[in-house]
Design a protein that fits this description.
heterodimer; A: mainly alpha; 5 strands; B: alpha+beta; Sulfite Oxidase, Chain A, domain 2; Immunoglobulin-like; 2 domains; 5-stranded mixed sheet; 5-stranded antiparallel sheet; 8 helices; 23 strands; globular; oxidoreductase (chain B); sulfite oxidase activity (chain B); heme binding (chain B); Mopterin_OxRdtase_euk (chain B)
Chain lengths: 208, 421
């Protein structure tokens, strides 16, 4: 670590009120949570008011908007469905992100109790809590997230760099001459210069 | 004097004979009226110097623009567009067509409304105005910013037909800014204790916040708090007035409209480092904290949006190479889908963690080509094939696709995005 330079004396002290206004992140262990609570049924109502128009009445997602529930057991399948229940490792992230950045287009206006309630409802929609569950700093660690152990720290150094840092082949590098097996023109999803759209794979996926 | 072939005069005579032969091979032409007739622009005046206090490209370059792919995202406010890399040269990306990626739109934040807070495990939490930031010692560096999802649509196959779409979540600028370590030292890191296990959490002023956790070692190394790019203020859509520059690391961490830096004793595990920017492997587990962008390259011309239109003979194959691990040391080009390779010319060294331009000056006579480029960086890492990547990761990683790209060149000079077997 580099030597510490002398401060220049620029800037001013941040006030506690300023820090409280901007530092709202919540850590995985719940550090940073404000007082408050919210139950599943209140969450159902708040979700219907602020969230369901994009995320669906049951957090299942509408059109191409994100699915917040479901997708269990899909992570090792083609096109995994990565939701709060199937994929997210921590409840803290749900609380933090909803509180800070949702609803889309009107972020930052939910009360702590509303955020607790919405979070409780999303957990309920994923069958992670019962319908009488009340989420608060006190009940925080009762929730078990299914995929909490589903993440590994970047292991490219061992899994890839160790193998791919080698002098590459320059001649006779393939067993047989290359042949084309996939063409972008067969997929036909590149926008034309006049702005017209060709077939959308997203629509095809949604139709399933 | 020895015999004529080895004298200076003999060499000269030989060279002249060669060019005479070449001249004889060129078709005779009718006189060109663009030369023989007086043209308007040679006769009349052009625009006055008062016409454009801040100019845009000439109208003939109207196709050198950002493009988007509507089906990629649910809403254009949380979406991506693409740099027209197929049409650019050199390494510096013009800001006006450099790609954008927002999670809640490009916000308008005036310098006088700008505040930067440093808090958490620091001796003195601080608030800076924009004017404060301009009084710190500053540095200039050129770095690439590549979205973690660049080439992500290509994991499952050849999908989008053009280097702009397959590789254009990328720009390269000269940044002016303050080292993050300078700002952290201004707040004082004594309160943080042992820095080895400390992190910073950075977030933007926009509704999405885009909060990300960065280990202290990187923060004190080369992270910049930047307020100029390519000589001028950041563009609104690139974080005006202040953004983070995180050399070599995935573009998501280059937090725009930077408003807060918190020193923490652990990662926040925010949405952008759990739900997003984690890479699902074939067995369903996911890598997290895949920060570095590995060595990568792409041939920008010829390419699907940049076909060969000049017929047979000399052709310039050119492209870009870059690595988050340091300098590009070599780029090889194959015309036969990877059976044989020739080493291209790196135009002028490579800055670490910045775009490098390569050329292969060669000849094409209508034969089908399966064009590929393969970058190597100063750690000895060689850009892998897509098959090699899939073997380790499967097809659901979404992010960090640095595979070798293939363009199929047809007899008519057209180019297509293809995959090989």
């Amino acid at each position: 670590l580099p030597a510490v330079a002398e401060p220049l004396g620029l800037g001013r002290a941040a006030t506690p009120e300023e820090i409280a206004a901007w530092d709202v992140n919540v850590m995985p262990d719940g550090t940073g949570l404000p007082p408050g609570e919210g139950d599943v049924w209140t969450g159902d109502e708040v979700f219907a008011e602020y969230c369901a128009s994009c995320h669906g009445d049951f957090a299942e997602g509408r059109d191409a908007w994100p699915k917040l529930a479901g997708g269990f057991g899909s992570l090792d399948k083609v096109d995994p469905v990565k939701t709060v229940g199937s994929f997210w490792p921590y409840v803290s992230t749900v609380w933090d992100y909803v509180n800070r950045s949702m609803p889309f287009g009107g972020a930052g206006n939910l009360t702590p109790d509303e955020v607790y309630a919405i979070t409780a409802y999303i957990l309920y929609s994923n069958d992670l809590v019962d319908e009488d569950f009340v989420l608060s700093p006190e009940t925080w660690d009762q929730v078990e997230m299914p995929n909490v152990d589903g993440f590994i720290i970047d292991d490219r150094a061992e899994a890839e760099y160790a193998v791919w840092r080698a002098e590459p082949c320059m001649t006779d590098c393939r067993d047989a001459p290359a042949t084309i097996n996939r063409r972008a023109s067969d997929v036909g999803v590149t926008p034309a210069d006049d702005g017209t759209m060709v077939e959308s794979p997203m629509e095809a996926l949604l139709a399933k | 004097m020895s015999d004529g072939n080895t004298t200076r005069r003999g060499v000269l005579r030989g060279a002249l004979a060669g060019s005479a032969a070449l001249a004889a091979g060129r078709a005779a032409a009718e006189s060109d009226p663009l030369i023989t007739e007086l043209q308007d622009w040679t006769s009349f005046g052009g625009d006055p110097i008062t016409a454009r206090p801040y100019g845009l490209p000439i109208r003939f370059e109207a196709d050198v623009i950002r493009r988007n792919v509507p089906w990629l995202t649910a809403d254009p406010v949380s979406s991506i567009n693409f740099t027209p890399i197929h049409a650019l040269e050199g390494t510096i990306t013009p800001q006006g067509c450099a790609f954008e990626r927002h999670h809640s739109g490009a916000i308008e934040l005036a310098k006088e409304n700008y505040r930067l807070m440093i808090n958490g495990l620091v001796d003195q939490p601080l608030v800076f105005s924009y004017a404060d930031l301009e009084r710190f010692p500053r540095e200039n560096h050129v770095y690439f910013c590549e979205c973690a999802a660049n080439t992500g649509m290509e994991w499952a196959g050849a999908q989008l037909n053009g280097a702009q779409f397959t590789h254009g979540m990328l720009h390269n600028m000269e940044y002016t800014g303050i080292p993050m370590r300078t700002l952290l030292q201004e707040a004082g890191l004594g309160a943080a204790g042992d820095l080895a296990d400390k992190w910073i959490y950075v977030e933007g002023a926009d509704a999405s916040s885009n909060g990300r956790s960065i280990p202290m070692e990187k923060a004190l190394d080369d992270v910049l708090v930047a307020f100029k790019a390519n000589g001028e203020a950041l563009r609104k859509e690139h974080g005006y007035p202040v953004r983070l520059v995180v050399p070599g690391w995935e573009g998501n961490m280059w937090v725009k409209w930077l408003r807060r830096i918190e020193v923490t004793d652990g990662p926040v595990e925010s949405r952008e480092e759990t739900s997003k920017y984690t890479d699902v492997l074939e067995d369903g587990t996911a890598r997290k904290w895949t920060w570095v962008m590995d060595a990568k390259s792409v041939i920008t011309s010829p390419s699907p949006q940049q076909p060969i239109t000049h017929g047979h003979g000399p052709v310039v194959i050119t492209g870009l190479a870059w690595s988050g691990h340091g300098k590009i040391t070599r780029v090889d080009v194959s015309k036969d889908g990877g059976m044989t390779w020739e080493t291209a010319r790196l135009d002028r060294g490579s800055d670490p963690k910045a775009l490098a331009r390569f050329y292969l000056d060669t000849e094409w006579n209508g034969e089908p080509w399966l064009l590929q480029s393969r970058a190597m960086d100063e750690t000895g890492y060689v850009q892998p094939t897509k098959a090699a990547l899939r073997e380790v990761r499967g097809e659901n990683s979404v992010y960090h696709n640095n595979c070798i790209q293939t363009w199929a060149i047809a007899a008519d000079g057209s180019a297509e995005n293809v995959e090989l077997s």
